[in-house]
Amino acid sequence: MSHETVWDDVIDEGTQDVLDPGVPASLDRAPDVLVIGGGVIGLSIAASCRQLGIERVTVLEGSVLGAGPSRRAGGILAPEVHAMLHPGPFVDLARAGLQRHREWSAAWDGATGLRDRDYLLVSDSEVPEALRRLAGAQALAPADARRREPELGPWPHVLLLQHQASVHPLRLILALARRAGSIATGVTVSAFDTSGNRVVRVRTSAGRVTPGAVVVATGEAPRWLLPLAQVQVKGHIVATTPASFRLRGIVASTIAALQLDDGRLVCGGTFDAGDRQPLVRDAAVARIRAEMTRLLPASAELEIDRAWCCFRPCTEDELPVIDRLPGLSNAWLSVAHFRTGLLLAPAAGHAVASWIRSGVRPAELAGLGLDRLAPARLAD
Ligand SMILES: Cc1cc2nc3c(=O)[nH]c(=O)nc-3n(C[C@H](O)[C@H](O)[C@H](O)COP(=O)(O)OP(=O)(O)OC[C@H]3O[C@@H](n4cnc5c(N)ncnc54)[C@H](O)[C@@H]3O)c2cc1C
After folding, report:
1. Confidence class for position 320, pLDDT limits 50, 70, 90
2. Residue 145 C-alpha to ligand 1 middle, in angstroms?
3. Which atom of ligand 1 is nearest to the CA of 219?
4. Which of 183, 273, 287, 361 counts the most CB atoms within 10 A of its CB?
5. Architecture of domain 118-163+231-314 in CATH?
């Protein structure tokens, strides 16, 4: 079994150069905006800054673009699932994220691999009607559910969430990288030099950078910057050999399954609490296999030939932190995107870019600031 992701199949010489340009001689070391971190969040902020007319943007990535979960994630964009999990302003941002994904896909000739997909959420117990209403979910009788998705197993409770979507994580990274400005990889940022309430210099493994503004999008907040309490929640995903059947949408229970255009199933998104090792575990793959067979009995015939894992950075309330850094007028952070970084990226990127440009905190970031975390949570 290979531990490469299915998304990595798009890597060739040309895309490898985009993902790992090294330190180009032309690197802009005095940009208007410096973004630290070349995951989906950092690249979305950079591309959004440029869309809003901020020309000089530099991204510094310590490894290669998308080195973290950004290119290993499932690629599911389902804001209505989160309407049931985290009702509130966060869901509006998630819905705006999906809307902007659609705009990017239309503007960039489908380069991100976006697919509109209905989502069948199955469970052993009934989801309360009040929650269903928040998500605009329709309860289906089991027979109706199987008419809609003939491969679905015999689940007693099925909810239909229409017009959700999926994206190809690595195609998204590549599309963003081509629009993100000046990029260097293999460059780690280690400290800020400040004067008054401004960051005036950023120290990196490739020398100093003097930006007008800086955004930290490093997955989790770096310890040298902010002692924010965070955990990393591991997850596994598998892919099968191509199926002869065709799924009509995404099906999900505690894990989710979607089908690629070539027939392979991508299935997973486990929450492996307490497992801190970046290793694929046979036991986790077996658990996915068992649940996948409950979801889609015909999948039992398919071979699992890929399995990979990655980590979700997470705060106590499982919501991201998108804020200006305390005491600094020209530094922001967008971290701890847990399980929805791909979904949120375009809306979060646009919000941060417009905050930098206007100086005014966008209303859509309500509830995502550092101030919601009790002081005890800020101290490690
Ligand atoms: C199993 C699994 C499935 C998932 N499925 C989905 C899904 O279906 N849909 C969805 O929306 N989300 C999903 N997610 C969540 C999503 O992957 C993350 O929320 C998202 O990738 C976070 O992006 P990021 O850019 O914040 O972080 P990262 O991808 O971690 O990027 C941060 C980058 O910063 C770099 N960096 C760190 N420190 C420094 C430094 N000091 N200097 C320079 N560079 C630095 C890192 O190398 C890294 O490349 C999933 C996550 C997991 C684990």
Report:
1. very high
2. 34
3. 27
4. 183
5. 2-Layer Sandwich (3.30)
